[in-house]
Design brief:
Blueprint: E1 6-11, E2 14-19, E3 27-33, H1 40-50, E4 81-85, E5 88-89, E6 95-101, E7 105-112, E8 117-125, E9 131-139, E10 145-150, E11 152-156, E12 162-169, E13 172-180, E14 184-190, E15 203-206, E16 217-222, E17 228-234, E18 240-246, E19 254-255, E20 260-262, E21 266-271, H2 274-288, E22 300-302, H3 304-307, H4 313-326, E23 330-333, H5 363-371, E24 375-380, E25 384-385, H6 390-394, E26 418-419, H7 425-442, E27 446-449, E28 459-460, E29 463-464, H8 466-483, E30 488-491, E31 509-511, H9 518-528, E32 537-541, H10 555-562, E33 566-569, H11 578-598, E34 602-604, E35 613-619, E36 625-632, E37 643-644, E38 654-659, E39 681-684, H12 685-690, E40 693-694, E41 703-710
Parallel strand pairs: 22-23, 22-33, 23-24, 24-27, 27-30, 30-31, 31-32, 32-33
Antiparallel strand pairs: 1-2, 2-3, 4-5, 4-10, 6-7, 7-8, 8-9, 9-20, 9-21, 10-19, 11-18, 12-13, 12-15, 14-17, 15-16, 16-21, 17-18, 25-26, 28-29, 34-35, 35-36, 36-41, 37-40, 38-39, 38-41
Helix pairs in contact: 7-8, 9-10
Length: about 700
Amino acid sequence: MNSRNWTVLRRDGVSLILAHPAAGLPSVLHWGADLGDLGEADLAGFDRATSRQSAPGTLDAAWRLPLVPQDADGWSGRPGLLATREGRPVFPRWTTAVEEAGEARLRLTATDDASGLVLRTAIAIGEGGLVLVDHELDNTGEGELDVAWLEATLPVPKTADHLTQFAGRWVREKSPLTTPMPRGTTVRESRRGRGGHDAPWVTLASNGAPRNRGGEVWAVHLGWSADVRHRVDRVNEHVSVLGAGELVRPGEIRLAPGGTYATPTAYFAWAADGLDGISARFHTWMRSRPQHPKTPRPLVLNTWEAVYFDHDGDRLEALARKAAAVGVERFVLDDGWFHLRRDDKAGLGDWTVDPEVWPKGLEPLAGLVHSLGMQFGLWFEPEMVNLDSDLARAHPEWLLANPASVPAPEGLSFRTQYVLDLANPGAFEHVRSQMSALVGALGIDFIKWDHNRDLVEPLHAGAPGTHEQTLAAYRLIARLKSDHPGLEIESCSSGGARTDLGILAHTDRVWASDSNDPVERQEIQRWTELVLPPELIGAHVGPSPAHSSGRATALPYRIATSLQGSAGFEWDLLSCDDEETERITAFAAVYKELRGLLHTGTVVRPDVLDPALRVRGVVAPDRSEAVFTVATVASLEDSLAERLRLDCLDPERRYRVRVRDEIGAARWGWVTPAWLDGGETVLSGRVLAEAGLQLPVLWPVQAMLVHLTAV
C-alpha cells in the first residue's frame, strides 16, 4: 500500500512500513513481522503509537531516522553517507519523490540541487521475505565529488540485545562470536580486496543469544566480493541500526560531474523462528533467481589433492576411468596444466597448455572424460599473474600494484604472485581470449575460478583500484558465460574467502574451504549455509588424514559430511582399496538418490544440548520426506544421550524411520537404542517433535544418516 504519508511493503510474512515526511527521506517505522492489511487510519494510529515525541519536535529531541541517517537528523551514530566536494563536507537536504510503489517494491528519487546530489533508492521484499536495499548517488553539481561511503541501513528494536559477528582464518572460515549488544557504533571491516577468510560475512542482532529454531533474529549480508564494512549503532536516542556497505579507500570513488556510484546490494533478513528462519529467507530467495542452477548437482572429482602439480597424462586418464566407474559425473583438472606450472611460483597469466607435460594437449583427456559420460572442468586463476610468466614480462604495466612493491621486498611476497589489473582493457582481453579459446577447443563444462591472495596496495592509474577490479571480474565471468552457454563456474578463493551473494550473481557454486577435514567442515558448512543453500556449497570427501589438519577420520564420517552440500571427491581414488571403492560407489548412488531432496528442501538444525553433537536435516517442501545427519565432533557428555526431537515434520502424518548405512555404519557405546536394533520404526510427526528418538552414545567423530519417509 502507498499513500501520501506512508508506504507498506509486504511479502511472505514480512512487512516494511515507511513514513514520508514533508521534507527529507522516508523513515522506516517497522521492519519485521507482517502486520496485515493496514488502512490509512491504522497507519496513522501506528505512526502515533510508535513516535517518541509530538510536534513540534526539536532537533535535539532526535527525529525519526531516515533511510540514510545524517547529522542533521539528530543522529549521533555513523552517518549513512559521507561525501566531500573539493575537500568540504556535503550536508544534503533531500526532497524526495516516489517513483514506484508496488506491493513489495519501492523506488525513490531524492534531490538536493544546492549540494548537487541525486540519490536513487530501491527497496524490495524478495521471494522468501528477504529485503534488498540498493542506492545510487549521482553527482549533478560542479566539480568532483568524493564518496567516502554510502551504506544501507534498517532499524532493529532495542530488545535486540545480542550481536553475532563472524571472523575466521584459512581452513577455518566463518567462525561466529556472540556478545551482548555493544553500546555506540560497532564496525567490522574487511580490507583484503576480497572478502577474506575473516570476512564479516553476516551480522546478526537477536533477542538473547541466537538459537536455531526459535527467537527473533535480524541479519544483514552485503553482496560484494571485495572490501566491506558492517555496522551496528546502538545509541541512546534511537532504535538500533543494522547495516552494511562497500569499504572504499580515499579517492577510490571520485565522481566527475554526471558520474554515478551504485552501492552493492545489501540483503536484510528478519525471522521470528531463529537462525533457521534467517536461512529459509536467504535460501528461498536464492532459489527463486532465474540463474539459479536447475539441473541436478553433479558428483565431482577435483584432482588437486590427488596429484597436486604432478601432472601425468596416463595417471590422470586412469583416475578419470576410476572416477567414472564409481559414479563421478564431473571431472575437474586442477592447477598445474599450463605453461611453466610445476609449482606455484610461475605461469599464472599464461593460459596455454604446457607442451612438456601435455605434448598432445588436453584434448585427449577432455575427450576421454566426455566419452565416459562425465563433464570436464578446468582450474584457472584469471585475476592473478606470476612475474615468471610471458605475460608479466611482456606487460609489467598490467599489474594492479604499487610499483614500489614489484618485485616484492624481501619477506613481503604474497604467495609469489601478483594481481592482474582486469580494469585495464588489454589485460581483460588477454585473459578472456585465452580462456575462451580453451573452453571452446576442449568443450569445457566447468571452471574452478580461484583467487589466492589479498589485494595489497592495489593501484590502478595511480588510484585505489579494488572497486573497478571487482566489477571487471564480474564482467569477465559474465562474458565467458554469455559466450559459452551452459558453462558453469565455481568461486574459490583460497577456499571460502569469496562466497558472497555478489560473486554468486555470476557463479554457480562456491568452494567453502580448502579444509576437507570433516570435523572442521561441520562448522564451516553450517555457517556458510546460513546464507547459501546447500546445492551451491562444494563439499568433498578428502583423504585421511586431512592435508590441512593432519586429522584422521573414518570414511563414513567424511561421506556424511560431504552429503550436506554439493558433493564430490578431492582424493586420489586410485589409492582406494576394494572396501573403500565399494563404499564410495554406494555413496555416489545415495547422493544421486537423495540430491533431489537435499538440494530443494528446507534446511533445519534442531537445537541440541550437548556441545559435541551436530544435527542437521533437510525436509521436503511437502514434508513427505526428510534426511538428517547426526554427528559428533567430540565425545558426548552423558552416558545417556539426549533425544533427537524433530519439530519440522507434519504432526498428522506417520513416518518410517531408518538409518542409511550403505555409506558405512556409525559407531557408539555398547548400549543400542531399540529403534536402531533392527525392525521397523514408524512414528507420527507429533511424536517425533514432542518425544523424539533416543540417540545412542556416539563415539567421537561419528555420523549417521537418518532417513524419514511418510507412510
